[in-house]
Structures are given as structure tokens and as C-alpha cells.
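User:
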Amino acid sequence: MDLVLCHTTADFDALGAAVGLCVLRPGSRIVLTGGCHPTVRDFLALHRDEYPLIERRSVNPQQIRSITIVDASGRDRLGKAAEWLDLPQVREIAIFDHHKEAHSDIPATVTQIEAVGASTTLIVEKLKNQAENSDIPFRLLPSEATVMALGIHVDTGSLTFEGATARDAIALAWLMEQGASLGVIAEYVEPGLSPQLQDLLREALNNLRSETLHGYSVAWVLLSTEAYVPGLSSLASRLLDLTETDALLLGNVYKFSENENNRNIAPESPVSNRLTIIGRSRIEGTNLSELFKPFGGGGHARAASLATRDVDPLLTLNQLADELKTQIPHPPTARELMSSPVRSIRPETSVGEAHRILLRYGHSGLSVVDAGDRLAGIISRRDIDIALHHGFSHAPVKGYMTPQLKTIAPDTLLPEIESLMVTYDIGRLPVLENGQLVGIVTRTDVLRELHQQKARDRGSNAEFSYCAVSESVEQLLRSRISAELWQLLSIAANIAQNRGWQLYIVGGAVRDLLLATDDTLALTDIDLVVDGKCGSDDSGAGVELASSLQKLYPESRLDVHGQFQTAALLWHKDSAFGSLWVDIATARTEFYPYPAANPEVEASSIRQDLYRRDFTINALAVRLGVPRSGELLDFFCGLLDLESKQIRVLHANSFIEDPTRIYRAVRFAVRLGFEIEPQTEGYIRNALTSGIYYRIQGENGRAPALETRLKSELKYILQAPYWKVALQMLGDLQALRCIHPSLELDRELWRQLRLLDRCLNERKKEGSATDSVTDVTDVRKKEEGSSATDSVTDVTDVTDVRKKEVGRRKKEEGRDNSQFPIPNSQFPIINIPDWQMRLEVLIAYVAPEYRGKVAANLQLPADSIKRLEVLEAGKNELAEGLPKCELPSQLVLLLRNYELPVLIAIALQSPRSARRQIWEYLTKWTNVEPPLNGNDLKALGYKPGPGFKRMLDDLLAARLDGDLGDRAAAISFLAQRYPQT
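Assistant: Predicted structure:
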């Protein structure tokens, strides 16, 4: 006999799963191990004959071959039928359940416990798969489909409960296709209360005890009845809705005698107290199943029950209520939610000026404070728009602001904040401390926090399968970095917390942590942001924190970066940290006064600091230190973009404000193997075709973003191993126009770049030297530094400091900055790096009259500017002179007057015959020397003077043209040409 066991007080989910298993395994029988829910009882009163049910007392234990348990995984849920699990002839025990948090004490041979809304869903998926892969037509009976649909409906609240999943919806849809009866489902999903339950509801409302804790209401009540009352779960749900309570414990104590269930027991059997408790909770973070487990109960985190005996009912209920209250998490306070410092204006500020400030910072309203910095009112964008519409731009805002305000304190809890906003329809609440405005909480802040709470309660970002984000990113971070680095971060977090600040690790380090597939993550560049939450007094928090850390780590070097109050700690070849760079900055916001300008930076909050960054995948932060250590801040769906492998910008004007972000988008896309999101690509193309950059250059004389910052991005790309792919993508976007409006990557320019690459590669084949400029560690560190901060402060102060540091390290390590020093090479040394050679080729492709100006605008070295300025003249000279060179000596004497980079640039733009001559010179003739030198001439009796140069040139020409062989021939040649008197 093959049995399917439902747990005691079977519900529709247990019955539906059992019926489905009997379809999968024909001949199986269903056992209700200990009664059923009242609605299930009523349902079976009409439909029992349609399902293979068998009473427990009718089972012959010796005939049991296999046991399958549905919707439960513990012996205590099976009543006396649990004894069958120990029978020696039972060869298979299977469990199908959806309570992942439950502990199983059953020695199962097959177990499937998954986080779906109903156990029936697991069985329906098997049936659906069998139907789709079977050659024989398959269809459920309507009675089978209906009871399984009831199981999913009831356990998921018709797909409205927190644990409902897409899998439940798909299973339910398939059951409807199979003929589930909607009429029957409607009748049993929401049954009315029986007269007895209605009486108990009135009693419960009169005797309900409640308490408000952390903004949540918890209620409990004990009902006494003569006997067991079926349907208490329906009563608990109704009571929860009527009282709008957040959590409820409904207890029922009644007398119970063993002879009620067993006629073989004597009538005088003792009577005991039985206690049943039904629990319901709407509070994130509570777990009723764990709460009831010590009493043998269980269920879901938000809906559970227990049944026990011989205990003090009231004491037990009160004890459980107290324990439930300890589970309630402390909700976030206004201090944790608020944005700070608050942008404020005086009452005398004009409406026009207030409108300009709103545009500058993108706010929807401004706080108005008096001369003592006390809150006087709030003016919204709508108020300002109306005043402007009526022509009152010069009027003071005090005539249009809202003076009577609801305010909150820093320790006001989230539920109270939410209640104020809903009750009074307020979009923003000022936060006052000692009468001073210290922050503001907006409706968006509240909605975001509520959403994040739900995500944490569902298993913390479980929907982001690619990123595999755990409940606390802290554990992920701690497991992948060295113990020494984790200790450094922990110490920094503690220092910040003691000063009332919050510390975050931000940007590229977080992105790489989430993308990493290895167990260890080698972080050489870390960006930390300090959120002071207290206004301008904490604008130097980043520097203060860095200084405190440097005292604890004296082996590090502290660099403070100018007026922007950022600092860096540097370790070089340290035994614990290796070469590590830690940037520490105060949370900032920025404003671009005009397109492609340098941004103006001000202290702000972590949210504003992340908003100023380039792309969503770089706008991620991890909280360090309590409260909620390890919490991931993702205000802009960066996790989804990591999962989708796409580069997405934060706002539509991002590329207008900073064109270097176009190059950064391409760099990250190619380096990470991502795609640029279509709308982001559209923003790029719109910015480029608008002509705004060139108009700004004409109006202001310069566009800072197109100067050293653009050169830095070009350097990162042109020195990277993926430069070809990145450059082609830039060409497709027509982004080379940022260098000059006429520059496009056409076939001819691409041919020249490929020829240059062949030239450089041929040179490298002659030796084993490496390109010191493309040192991977330094390049990656520089890239990540720029990625994480993305503002002019980092490109001016920080980049300069980093350049000095990189140069110092290279000097100490004995590296040569030249692109090639290759010993014994026939090819001459090029003393500029590959990336600069490639950049000069790009610039050389624009019209001659613009080359020097473009190079100067990018602030290339003076020799590079000079080369580009004389390139056209040299090209014309060689176009005229090269055809006249018939002998090697003529070729050498012509070309040796040109710098090697100039010759290469000319060759790239010249016909094949000229390129062949220049290449022959570079590879064959450039290192040929005269057979005699100046010392030899002196030894032969010649007097030093201007004539030496002519003599050596003649010797070289004769050797190049094959007229001289050995040393004796050279001496004879001199004697004939330059006889001594």
C-alpha cells in the first residue's frame, strides 16, 4: 500500500497536494492523520467520494510500502500516523513541503522543500511537466483540478500573501486550463463565520488586549469554550482585519477527554485542558513559526498555530505575546531616513531666486528658515510656479510659503512618519532637533524604505539571481577580502559611529564585489564616503576620519586633496595591505554651472552622493557599522542592471553635463562585457548631435570636461588591451567628435591605427620588454578611482596625486617610462607610450590647422603639440624628397633629421612606396654606424674640428651604399678623400 499523509487539521493545501500525488502515482491512498479544517470538512462532506481517501484506522500497517508526506516535515504534525515511519518494510519516505524554515526529524529518502506559496504548486509542476512530455493525451478531472486550485488559492490568499510566487500563479493558470471550477473555489475560499464563531468574535472584541511597540500594534486574547471550536483561523483573520492590528495571538482553551476520540477508554478517563493558539502577523521580521516551535507548533513566518495541553493558558499566551514583542524589529528613525543637510532659503529670498535654486539642485521644494535658522515654512515647486505665472518673480517667498507645518524629531519612528503623511497628505516632513532644522524626510524616502523592508523579509534581494546578494552583504565582503583589510574597515566604521557619522564603501569596489565569482577579491583601490547627517559642520568629516586612521596606521601616507575636503591613505608594498589606496570623502552633491564645466561641489547626504555618479552599477554602497551593518544601498536599480549586464545612466542630462561619461560608458561596457542600455545610448547620441559642447567652447572659451578629463579617459581606453573594440564603439557613437567636431572613425583612420599597431607590435617582437605604461595594477587602480568619484575634484587634485605616486613607485622599482627599451634592437627607441602614439594618430587625422590647438586643449606635452604642428610640413617635405632617394645614404641623410614619432605619423598618412622607404630606414639603416669614429680619426692624425662631421657622414654614406667593407678600406677611403698634409 502506498500512502499519502496529510498533517493533522488538514487544510486545502495538504489535501490538494495529496490528490495531485495520487494522480502521479495511481493506486495511492490519502490519509487525514488528525481531522481537517472546517471548510475542508464541509468540502469533503460533498466531494469525499471523488478522492482516494482512507481512514487511518482502516490502514493495515504491515501492508504499507511507501509513505509520502505533504505540507509538513515533522513527526509532530502527523499524530499517531507518525508511528508508521518506523516500520521496517517501508522502503520509501518522501516529503513535499513549502515551509523552508521548518526542521525535519523524518528520515526521508526523497525531500523537496522549496519556497513557494503552496505545497500543491510543487505537485502541479510535476503534473504539468508530465503532461507536456507525454505522448498520451493527459487531462485532470475537474474535481482534481478544483481541489488543487483551492490549495493554492487558500495558502497564497489568492496570490496576495507575501510568500506567493510566480510559480504559484503559473500552476494556478494551468489548473484553470484543466477545468478547475471557479464556482466551487469561490464558495470555499472565503467562507462566512458560523454562528458560534460570530459569538466568539464579539467576545474577542470585548476582551482584546493590545499594546503599541515601535509603532506596531500587537494584540492577544484568550477565549474559553466547552469543546474544540473548528474554524479559529478564519476567526483570527477576521479579527485582525476588524481591529487593524499588526499582529494577533488568538488563544482557545477547552476541556478534552481521551474518550472523546477513543471509545475503548473508560468513561471516567481524566479530563485535561487543551490550548490552541492561532497566530497572524503583518510585521516584517517576525516569525510565528519559530515562536510556536517550543510548544510543538509551526507553520509560516506570518501565519502559524500550536496545540498543547496541561499548561496555564493565560500564562502561556502572555509569555508568547511578550516573546512576539521582542521579535518586532526597531523601525528606522527619521535620522536614518532623512536627507541632510537641508537646502534652505530666507523668507526674503525672491521667488525667482528660489526657482533658480530648485532648478540647480533638482528639488521639489525648499525649506524657509529665519535669521536664527529656525524653520519658518516650506515652499513647493508648485507654489513657485504659480507665483511666476502671475509675474511675481521679485516677490519674497514668505508670501507664498506654507508656514503651519507638521514636523518630526530625529527619533520619530517610520510607522509614525507614514501615518502623518497619510493622515495629512504631506509629501515632506522637516526634522527638527533643539529647534534647528537638521533634515527632511520625503514620501519617496518612506516608500523606498518600505520596499527595502519587504525585500529583506523575502530573503533579501532574492529576485536578483545573477548577483546572488545575501541578506547582509557584510558577510560576502568579509569572506572575500583579507582579514587585515576587514579590520581596517571595521575600525573606520567604529570611529565614524563614535562621531555620529555613517560610513559607506561605495562605487567600483561594491560593483566588483557583487560581480566577483572567485572566493577572494583583490581590492587595491577602495572609496569610502562619510555621511555626517549634521550639516556644514561635518563637511570635513572625510579628512578627519582619514587623519584618525593614519594615527592608527602610521605606515600609511596621508594625502589631503585641496578645498574639496577629501583625503587618501596610501600603503606601498606593505606586508598586510600590499599596495592599497583608500579614498575617504565626505558625502557630496554637485552642480554643473554649464555643460562640460567643472562641477561645483557641496557637502550633502549619501543619497545625493550616489546620485552624482555616472552609472547605476557604480552608484551602489554598502553600509559599514551599525545600525544595519552590511546593508546594500541601491537607490537606482544598479543590481538589476548588473543582472541585465547593461550600462545605464542615472539621468537624461548626464552626458550634457559631463561628456567624459560617454567614454566611461564605452570603457565599462567593453571591459565588463556589458551592453549600453538603449535609452542611455539615445542620450549619448542626442548630446553629441546637439552641438552643445562646441557652442559652450565658443561662448566660454573652454569646456573643462573636454580638456584633461577627456585626455584621462582617452588614456584609460587607448592603453587598455581592449582599445580596438572600445574605439570602434566610440566611432559608432560618433563620440570622437568630442576631440574635434570633424573627427570620425572612417576606414582610412582605422587603417592608420592598425598600421601603427603593426609597427609597435613588430618592435615588441624583437625583445621581451613590457609596456611599463600599461601596468595592469596601476591602470586598474586609476580607472577605479575615476569610476568611484566621477568629479573634477578627482581629476584635478586626486589624479595629480596619483600620478606622482605611480611615478614614485615606478622609480623605486627601477622601471623605465619609455615605451620600448629593447636591448640590441634594430628598431630605434620610442620614448612615448603606446596610448599617446595612438592619440596623436587620432589628432593628426583632423585638418592641419586644428592639430596643435586640439593637442593643447587636451593638455598634451609640449613636444607632442610641436610634433603635431610640424607634421604637415614634414609630410610635404618627404613627399618631395623621398622619390629622389635612389641610394640608402640619400634616404638616411634625409630621414635622420626627423623624430621617430614624426616619421611614424608621416608614414601612416603616406602612400605605400613612401611607407616602404620609411620602414626600410627604421628597420634596416637607422642603426648602421660609420666604420670609424672620432677617436679613430684622432688616432689617424686628423685634428678635431667641423671637418669631422663631414668625414663621418662620408664614411657612413659609403658604408650604406656598399662602397666600404672592413676598417682598412675605411682608412684608405679617408686617405683618398681627405689626404693629410
